[in-house]
Amino acid sequence: MSSPDQLIIFNNVSKFYGEILGVNRVNLQIAPGITSLVGPNGAGKSTLMNLMTGLLRPTRGSISLLGIPTDQPEQLFRKVGYCTQFDSFPRGVTGREFINSFLLVHGFDRKRANELSQIALERVSLQEAGDRKVAAYSKGMRQRIRLAQSIAHQPSVLILDEPLNGLDPMVRAETIALFRRLASEGLHLIISSHILHEVDMMSDRVVLLNSGYIVAEGDIHGVRNEMEEHPMQILIRCDQPAKLAAYVFEKNHVVEARLHDDRRGLFVRTRDADRFYLMLNRAVAEGAVNVESVAPVDDDLSAVYQYLIGTSGGSA
Amino acid sequence: MSSAIDVVQTRSESQPSSWSLWLRQIGAIFRLEIEKNFLSRRSLLIYLLALLPLFPLTILALLRPFIRPPGDEWRDFNQMSVFYSVLYNGFILRTVVFFGSAWIFMNLFRGELVDRSLHYYFLSAVRRDVLVVGKYISGLVTSMILFTGTTVIAMLLLYFPHFYSQSARYFTEGRGLGQLLTYAGITMLACLGYGAFFLVVGLFIRNPIIPALVLYGWEWINFLLPPVLKKISVIHYLNSLVPVPVSEGPFAVVAEPTPAWIAIPSMLGVTLVVLILAAYRIRHMEIRYGSD
Fold this sequence. Notes:
The complex is a heterodimer of chains A (316) and B (292).
Chain A: E1 8-17, E2 20-30, E3 33-38, H1 45-52, E4 60-65, E5 68-69, H2 73-79, E6 80-83, H3 95-106, H4 110-123, H5 139-151, E7 157-161, H6 169-184, E8 188-192, H7 196-202, E9 205-210, E10 213-218, H8 220-225, E11 232-238, H9 241-249, E12 254-259, E13 265-270, H10 273-285, E14 291-296, H11 301-309
Parallel strand pairs in A: 3-8, 3-9, 6-7, 7-8
Antiparallel strand pairs in A: 1-2, 1-4, 4-5, 9-10, 11-13, 11-14, 12-13
Helix pairs in contact in A: 3-4, 3-5, 4-5
Chain B: H1 18-39, H2 43-51, H3 54-62, H4 72-75, H5 77-115, H6 118-122, H7 128-159, H8 164-172, H9 176-204, H10 209-220, H11 227-230, H12 235-239, H13 260-283
Helix pairs in contact in B: 1-7, 2-5, 2-7, 3-7, 5-7, 5-9, 5-10, 7-9, 7-13, 8-9, 9-13
């Protein structure tokens, strides 16, 4: 069990913009690793991130990051970096000056600020463009320079609002690898993203939001397993799908068995995936069928998203 | 992304003591802001304002060979000092310094909200009241340099091109230098007072032009107000300090000027209170650019 100074804690947090709900009754404890915030536009992802960093103040409840309340920026931002979605910069600065100037505001001396700026620029592959004006950067470069600025002081918690927006596929992959590397170093990474398959690929856990409420949270397979109203769908490729269908249909936890269109596979919907896999193992051991492959069809974030929030997961 | 870089985690880097850290942070904020104040596109208006009183005086100086002095009264330094006092009170102080300070100080935070760049400060490990101090000092230095410069150059332009040797004597042996320094001091005090007011207005009110115009009107009708109300203004205390008092017309309500030993500490005290209010406001401020 992690202690409060290793966690990000939301304690019954609500935020209202006048009459309009931002988020409501959020209770969360986020451990190190990559946590993704997922939900449709207006779900409350950015509100949650802005609350976490003190840019917004909760109407009710309290938030602490590694034991530090969010109304103490001088303590908080020694440990926290936030890459917002605001695509704006101080006027007339180069990428290096942009990072450097806020490191100086942070309190680093000039020499250390220069070193940290260089490291941050190299981490986002902008060392060559670092001395050009930010105004001349492409959208992807602006995204990366903001990322560099948020990691330059080497925080323990990194909050990233849509950090993959505007990046080309190559840089996306590199950025995801950077996130994984930072997470393996013990950082908290809180990421919001619209691209569900990328979230699925990089996240240790997800927080699903809809209309200001947390719909589900945890590791994606755990969340999926708890959704009893949506039985798990599994595709079994085998030599005798019809025989297997008859075999599995006798079991209580199997609610549907349907042959694949090519008649070389069987879709099974079960309320208890673990029992189903045990049963399938027995069938294979008894020689009833020869199984080529077994794959869950809807044990991913897109499926969970679709079941819980209702739209397809391509662009949350 | 480069993986060759061996990142040394410095999350627990030793920090200097609070005061030296705050001073360093104020210095960093000051450098960033002073560059913006002097070199951004927004500063063009300030330069124009600061130069405004100098245009007619420069033209007057250039035309000097073609203007025949009307008589001895033109050479009368007492009359010249009254003329300068009118120019200073009516134009430099009430218009140039007033609107210049309004523009500089209201933009310190409001400008960043418009540019959507204030969050970078809010996401730095700096106390928000330290941010207020850093920004206020940068505004103060900017306005003092520009408007004290205007005050001094305007006075020199009035005297020197016409009667150089007499003016030189007036400034070195007479009252000229004392008056010049007093006017410069009043301008600095005006920047201090108006600056704090406009800083806090820019923080509390989305459209700060309206309160600026209200204060402008209030300062202009100050001469008509009863003595008690006169004291609820900046201009009353500044007027109390001018070395050459000018008549405010037949309708003016005469009030005793406030002595310097009360006027100056009062201005400084009110400025301090207003800055504390600004610091309180900024500590509770949220960033919601959409609504700004």
